[in-house]
Amino acid sequence: MAIDKIQSESINLADNFDFTGTVTGAGGNNKPLILAVGNTSQTVANNTNVKVTLLNTQPINTGGTWDSSNHRWTPGEAGTYFFSGQTSCNIASSGKYLQCAIYKNGSVIKVTQQTAEGTNATYTVECHIMDVADADDYYELYVRQNTGGSVTLNYDPNAKYCMFQAFKVIT
Description:
Layout: E1 33-37, E2 43-44, E3 50-51, E4 60-62, E5 65-67, E6 72-74, E7 79-91, E8 97-104, E9 107-115, E10 121-133, E11 139-145, E12 151-152, E13 163-170
Antiparallel strand pairs: 1-4, 1-13, 2-12, 3-11, 5-6, 7-10, 7-13, 8-9, 8-11
């Protein structure tokens, strides 16, 4: 008996489906991954690139290696990674800026800047980038500001004002 007609029904997206087999090719293992947060009220001098001091005991550090003496992260395996950093401080004068930068092997790969529009306000700058990493590359978070004097980074490990995170996207 030959089949000469196939009729399909539409799928009701409100239905619940129970999959009993194995789903392949979906999702992935996004490890190694890290989330490190600022661990002190760190002072940042005017017009100086300063490495952000991050917790020696990170909230998340799966599969990578954390260098607590140098506050930097090495993935431990090659792949493409998503990196995100954040810095925060109070700026007293409009027209001044706060920068957040991600460094790879001692060189900047991404900088984001926000210029103050008002006075005596809190500014938070985020920086994001995807990068292809070797197993032994290392990544760090830096901050820079031009207020004319020193500023103190906002610190609260629960609020994560200053933080660095990364996770593997693909091999």
